[in-house]
Design goal:
The complex is a heterodimer of chains A (about 625) and B (about 70).
Chain A (H helix, E strand, L loop, with lengths): L5 H22 L5 H28 L6 H14 L3 H32 L7 E4 L5 E4 L9 E4 L9 E5 L2 E4 L1 H4 L5 E3 L4 E2 L4 E2 L4 E5 L7 H11 L6 H34 L14 H14 L3 H20 L2 E3 L2 H8 L1 E7 H5 E12 L5 H11 L6 H9 L9 E7 L3 E6 L2 E6 L1 H5 L13 E7 L2 E12 L3 H10 L4 E5 L4 H11 L3 E3 L4 H14 L5 E6 L5 H6 L2 E5 L5 H6 L2 E3 L5 H36 L5 H20 L8
Parallel strand pairs in A: 11-18, 11-20, 18-19, 20-21, 21-22
Antiparallel strand pairs in A: 1-2, 1-3, 3-9, 4-7, 4-9, 5-6, 5-8, 10-22, 12-17, 13-14, 14-15, 15-16, 16-17
Helix pairs in contact in A: 1-2, 1-4, 2-3, 2-4, 3-4, 3-8, 4-9, 4-21, 7-8, 7-9, 8-20, 8-21, 9-20, 9-21, 10-20, 12-13, 15-20, 20-21
Chain B lengths: L1 E7 L4 H12 L4 E7 L4 E6 L4 H15 L4 E3 L1
Antiparallel strand pairs in B: 1-3, 1-4, 2-3
Helix pairs in contact in B: 1-2
The chains are: A alpha+beta (about 625), B alpha+beta (about 70).
């Protein structure tokens, strides 16, 4: 149990004292009517005075269907039907429910606040003369120099000017692996500096820094209400008046009939009853008529779901998007940078006869030694050790074709088919998808190296998990050639792919896929958020991936995955499904119990005790269930 | 223009829903949400009338829950 607030402690004391007095009154031998009333009035007043007071005040202000009023009416009514113990008990239980509700909500708020405890308290501002002062991050201007000591949280986005360190980004991404940073690297606020002292040049004011944006996003998520929330508030608006009117009818109609009709003309269900029995039944209705359990449990669940997701580095911008994610039927991935790494890796080395694969790679890497083309970098990265640059002379790059150089004094060509064929060297074909680097040594063909964009290690698992979660169709869109797309699609078990798309075509494709989804199913589009903003907005749920630090992506998307792992999407869908499941359970359970007790109450088969359970008991169970949404398995 | 205000002593979820429904009906208000979980009022209203609208909103909140105040 966490600490109670002062007013909660006071309420608890009141409840305990009243419970003790109630027990005492119950144990006493029968007394005179007047004495008994007084005896029960003491605990009633103790535990319920504020409810009665608020009921009266709100009644004057014209708030008829106020829950205080309903409770006061029900309990005062019970007093009049001489059920003193019940009256006190109902009020007591109502207060227990209120206390529990306030405690549970406070705890959820607190745990979200803890979760979001990424807000730095101060920044160590370094003046030009070298003095360091602790300053409110909001007051640090762009361009200022700040010092981040080991163990401190980075207060503002910036670039490293001095020092190296490792950063713990878990608060932002849910990723536990620390990230190494050095001079020139950009650093995001909210990360924790683990090892070395860093001096940063501030690049963004506090309001625009990553921390402030994330906090704002999560805080405002509860404004965009889900359909379930709208349903339940609308329902509550009609439910209470209806039940109260039904209670009124349940009391008045039989009472009038009993008074006006002769005994023999009474229908069988009225025969032998007295008006106070009908009043009692009506009071049972009043106790059940409070909608608060329902109204609170739904937003509480979504609040928990959104909060739990943010702990995993998944920012959901509204309860409505969480609800839509749970109904994901089609998931459309952009290929490059989303399912694949977006960088080239060597996927095959095909040497010509008489050439060792290792040598071929070495020749290519040496020839490209001085180029900073991404392909050259990938070739060098694929070599077991960095090739000795001294072996290369006379390197000349022909943009768009490749490189010509002398390696160990031998002329080497490395590049496209056209480069080699232009020198009269015949080049065989290769079936593998990807980019080919052909190499010739001393004027004869030496083989080729296949480079391709590798799928991310968790991409396949992510797609498999999405399917077990109930996603019917996974589609991949790409601007790449058909062969490359087919290879990736086959490897990852994607249901369908569309290749050679221009950015504008992607919107058309998504429109078509949207038309194919069932009315209740939702289409989720996942992209890197950089140049697919139109598609992100067109989809039911637009997900930007690897968006850490990218403002445009955070702006355009409905759901933001802070790191670049597709498996996080599966986690997001799982959290969404769990949340929506909890919401459904609560709605069905609460409405079911209330409905049953209402029906039983109308026939006189439900006591006041059952009614209190239908109200407070259901509220407590629904809230406990809703709090499960906050707990997230593993990210 | 969209603005956000913290609320104090907003103690019941159904009251928040009632306030929201009433504030949404005020003239000059494009949209309004009262979030029980974050205890916040978000109001999108005509710029010139914001003060007047806020006064009315505060009156609504007082009527539904007497202790509840909008912090400006």
């Amino acid at each position: 149990m966490g600490a109670l607030t002062r007013s909660q402690r006071r309420d608890l004391a009141r409840i305990l004292a009243a419970a003790a007095l109630l027990a005492l009154a119950k144990l006493l031998p029968p007394l005179s009517r007047l004495l008994e009333v007084l005896l029960y009035l003491v605990p009633y007043a103790l535990v319920g005075w504020d409810v009665v007071w608020r009921a009266l005040r709100n009644l004057i202000r014209g708030q008829v269907f106020d829950e205080n009023f309903l409770m006061a009416l029900a309990t005062v009514g019970a007093f009049f039907t001489t059920e003193y113990a019940e009256a006190v008990f109902v009020m007591l239980f109502y207060q227990v429910g209120e206390l529990f509700q306030s405690y549970a909500v406070g705890r959820s708020r607190q745990s979200i606040a803890d979760l979001m405890d990424i807000c730095p308290q101060w920044a160590n501002l370094e003046e030009p003369d070298g003095t360091v002062t602790q300053t409110d991050p909001e007051e640090v201007p762009v361009g200022a120099r700040i010092v981040v000591k080991p163990g401190e949280r980075v207060p503002l986005d910036g670039t490293v000017e001095e020092g190296t360190s490792t950063l713990d980004t878990a608060a932002l991404t849910g990723e536990s692996l620390p990230r190494a940073v050095g001079v020139g690297d950009s650093v995001l606020s909210g990360c924790v500096n683990q090892s070395g002292l860093l001096r940063l040049r501030v690049t963004k004011p506090y309001e625009e820094s990553t921390v402030a944006r994330i906090l704002e996003l999560v805080e405002n998520a509860s404004e965009k209400k889900s359909r379930s929330e709208q349903f339940i508030t609308r329902f509550a608006r009609y439910y209470t008046p209806c039940v109260v009117l039904a209670a009124l009818a349940l009391f008045l109609l039989p009472t009038l009939a009993l008074a006006l009709l002769p005994q023999t003309a009474l229908p069988s269900f009225l025969a032998g009853t007295v008006w106070s029995q009908w009043l009692h039944r009506a009071l049972v209705f009043l106790v059940i008529s409070c909608p608060c359990a329902l109204v609170i449990s739904v937003p509480l669940s979504f609040f928990g779901g959104v909060g739990g997701a943010s702990r995993c580095g998944i920012l959901v911008k509204g309860s409505n998007y969480l609800e839509a994610l749970a109904a994901a039927e089609t998931v459309v991935f952009d290929k490059t940078g989303t399912l694949t790494q977006g960088t080239f890796g060597v996927s095959a080395v095909h040497p010509a006869e008489g050439m060792e694969p290792g040598h071929l790679l070495e020749y290519a890497a040496l020839a490209e030694r001085w180029s900073d083309h991404p392909i050259s970098q990938s070739l060098r990265a694929a070599c077991p050790q960095e090739p000795d640059a001294g072996r290369v002379t006379d390197a000349r790059e022909q943009a768009g074709y490749g490189v010509e150089a002398l390696v160990d004094g031998k002329p080497v060509l490395a590049g496209s088919r056209r480069l080699l064929e232009g020198r009269g060297i015949s080049v065989p074909t290769c079936d593998l998808p990807g980019t080919l680097v052909h190499v010739s040594v001393d004027g004869s063909y030496a083989g080729h190296i296949v480079l391709s964009d590798r799928p991310k290690p968790d991409a396949k698992g992510a797609i498999a998990r999405l399917k077990t979660l109930g996603v019917r169709k996974v589609v991949m869109l790409t601007g790449d050639t058909g062969e490359t797309a087919a290879a990736v699609a086959g490897e990852l078990d994607v249901d369908k792919y569309h290749a050679q798309l221009l950015p504008g075509d992607k919107v058309d494709r998504v429109e078509k896929l949207l038309a194919q989804t069932s009315p209740k199913g939702k289409l989720v589009f996942v992209g890197d958020g950089i140049n697919d903003a139109p598609v992100l907005t067109r989809a039911d749920v637009g997900v930007a991936m690897g968006a850490l630090g990218s403002d445009a992506a955070i702006e355009a998307a409905d759901v933001v995955l802070m790191d670049d792992k597709p498996s996080k999407l599966a986690v997001a869908v799982a959290i969404a499904r769990k949340t929506v499941r909890i919401v459904r359970q609560n709605i069905v359970f609460a409405l079911g119990v209330k409905g049953v007790v209402l029906v039983l109450g109308a026939f006189g088969a439900a006591s006041m005790w059952a009614a209190v359970f239908a109200d407070v008991g259901v509220a407590v169970i629904a809230i406990l269930n809703a709090m499960r949404a906050l707990r997230v398995e593993q990210c | 223009m969209k603005k956000r205000f913290a609320m104090e002593n907003l103690d019941c979820a159904n009251c928040a829903a009632k306030m929201e429904a009433a504030i949404q009906k005020l003239p000059g208000v494009n949209s309004a949400t009262v979030s029980f979980m974050t205890q916040k009022l978000t109001i999108d209203a005509e710029e010139g009338r914001l003060e007047e609208i806020l006064d009315q909103a505060a009156a609504i909140c007082r009527k539904v829950e007497p202790h509840c105040v909008i912090k400006r």
